[in-house]
Amino acid sequence: MDSNSRGKEGREEPEAELGCCGCVLMGVSIFILIIFFPFSLICSLKIVQEYERAVIFRLGRVLSGGAKGPGLFFLMPCVDTFRCVDMRTFSYDIPPQEILSRDSVTVAVDAVIYARIFDATMSIINVENAHASTKLLAATTLRNVLGTKALSDILSERESIAHQMQSILDHATDPWGVKVERVEVKDVRLPVQMQRAMAAEAEANRDARAKVILADGEMKASRSLKEAADIMSQSPAAMQIRYLQTLNSIAAERNSTIIFPLPIDMLGGLMKK
């Protein structure tokens, strides 16, 4: 069952009888309407816009049939009054709230809510000011919801927090004829000391990962050098080719002195002698 259906069920009540005084006042109103016609007719005709609804009170009682509009409607002089209600979606900025999180960290959080009135009659007779009441309730709900969350959850689970707040607000404002359509957490501001601590922690984590990566690279390089040395030790020709490559590298650097290493076989023979 949607909100509109609940609102209609809430106001389906038989119109109360006017009583003797009410009948007398109705007669006077009709008499005034006839005497001052057509000026009274001009004053009694009211127009509401497409996005508005008019809640009519006759001698303090809401007329049956719900709110009127959009378009033209008629008011009885002296006995009818009306309140015009804007049915468009309205938005509220919840001012920054100082909140103590579950892990004892003080943060300042602000949010914005989007809501609309789905039942004009309920928004008039059930609450004094639907807009102001919704705004105050949103600020209180924001503090209550975030007070149960840790700092890491507040920073990483904004979407789930917004959905939770929307569900709580929508249920609470339903008797007021207000539908909360959307809640967004705008900003989470941390104390300066906490920002510095988190920056230091992030830097330490990055340094630790860099050292791990460097150590892993050195281990792989050492393993590759060992494998290359084992292969070259089994082939003297490969060692000589490596010598020639080293000479080529030295010559490319334009050094003034070039040292030619002796062949490894000659050094081996000298060592034996």
Automatic annotation (TrEMBL):
Superkingdom as given in the UniProt entry: Eukaryota
InterPro entries, per the entry: Band-7_stomatin-like, Band_7, Band_7/SPFH_dom_sf, Band_7/stomatin-like_CS, Stomatin_HflK_fam
SUPFAM superfamilies hit by this protein: Band 7/SPFH domain
Record-given protein name: Band 7 domain-containing protein
Protein localization: Membrane
Record PANTHER family: AT06885P-RELATED, BAND 7 PROTEIN-RELATED
Parts of the chain that traverse the membrane: 21-42
One Pfam family from the record: Band_7
Main subcellular localisation: membrane
GO annotations of cellular component type: plasma membrane
Family: Belongs to the band 7/mec-2 family.
Band domain ranges (all copies): 43-202
Record key words, sorted: Membrane, Transmembrane, Transmembrane helix
Organism, as annotated: Dreissena polymorpha
